[in-house]
Design a protein that fits this description.
Helix 5 packs across helix 6. By secondary structure, the chain is α/β, with parallel strands linked by helices. Strand 2, helix 1 and strand 3 form a beta-alpha-beta unit. Bound molecules: 4-(N,N-dimethylamino)cinnamoyl-COA (DAK). 4-(N,N-dimethylamino)cinnamoyl-COA (DAK) binds next to helix 3 and strand 6.
Length: 260
């Protein structure tokens, strides 16, 4: 299959493995809409390509992704963000049928952590950090964080992370069941490939159906939860605290929240 030229991601192949690397290092791979559209295009292409059995999604050494692009979100209102319906692109990530392995180094925060959690297996380097810091900028997770993190680590740890905004180290994430394995940074991609190669030897139809069946354990109820989370996320764009929180981040100062 002919590769498209992307501006925000890189794609590569290694035998039956399709590799996608998020590539906006200057902003720690902040997930702009353009990046997400390219990511979905690459995922869908690998999903269709016969020779590819497993997909690896990775980022840079310093950051997998530090979240959605705050600069592009700070002026949104409840209605403007709702009408743009950017979640439609995010929804396509979880429609990929082939197994997707996340190989995570550095920051996986906010939307970055949410993107990781849409993957099927998570391999982390020792430097990885997982967190939902949206509360620090006056909003809440909007791309599945309240639902998937809670299912992965349980109510109490999820509450702590979502309410304090404090991230977990790779080892904590492993201990809490969010990541499958922690490896030294230089072995990250190799470890992800080794798991991918093992899966690639299995029947491709069986792996797809196995993935679909495992996801069924939360697809029904999770869609209601995602809808609920999304409405609350949109609603916060009517608050002064969202404006103040995002503005403060962009101006590199501490926010002052008024509760309005
Ligand atoms: N957005 C935009 N730029 C970002 C960014 C982000 N999320 N994170 C980092 N950057 C930029 C910084 O502004 C800085 O740019 P310059 O000043 O160099 O131009 C550059 O990346 C390097 O960052 P720092 O200088 O801050 O680096 P440090 O090592 O000091 O700190 C950090 C690293 C990761 C602790 C810090 O950058 C940080 O706190 N970043 C923000 C983390 C965060 O709050 N993430 C959650 C964002 S909200 C949606 C889908 C998803 C979402 C929302 C909507 N829809 C489909 C509608 C998700 C929301 C979020 O993720």
């Amino acid at each position: 299959m002919k590769d498209v030229t992307y501006r925000n991601i890189l794609t590569d192949r290694d035998g039956a493995i399709g590799i996608i690397t998020l590539n906006r290092p200057k902003v720690l791979n902040a997930l702009s809409h353009e990046l997400m559209e390219e990511l979905v295009m690459a995922l869908e292409d690998f999903d269709k390509e016969d020779g590819i059995r497993v997909i690896i999604l990775t980022g840079g050494e310093r950051a997998f992704a530090a979240g959605a692009d705050i600069g592009k979100m700070s002026d949104e209102t409840t209605i403007s963000i709702m009408l743009k319906d950017r979640f439609a692109t995010w929804d396509k990530v979880r429609k990929v049928k082939k197994p997707v392995i996340a190989a995570v180094s550095g920051y996986a925060l906010g939307g970055g952590c949410e993107l990781v959690m849409t993957c099927d297996i998570i391999i982390a380097s020792e430097s990885a950090q997982f967190g939902q810091p949206e509360i620090n900028i006056g909003v809440i997770p909007g791309a599945g964080g309240t639902q998937r993190l809670t299912r992965a680590v349980g109510k109490y740890k999820a509450m702590e992370m979502i309410l304090t905004g404090r991230p977990m180290t790779a080892y904590e994430a492993h201990q809490w069941g969010l990541v499958n394995k922690v490896v030294p940074v230089e072995l990250l991609l190799e470890e992800a490939k080794s798991v991918a190669r093992e899966i690639a030897k299995k029947s491709p139809v069986a792996t797809k159906l196995a993935k679909e069946a495992v996801l069924k354990t939360f697809d029904g109820p999770i869609s209601e939860g995602l809808e609920f989370e999304r409405k609350n996320f949109y609603m916060l764009f009517s608050s002064e605290d969202q404006k103040e929180g995002m503005k403060a981040f962009l101006e590199k100062r501490q926010p002052t929240f008024s509760g309005r």
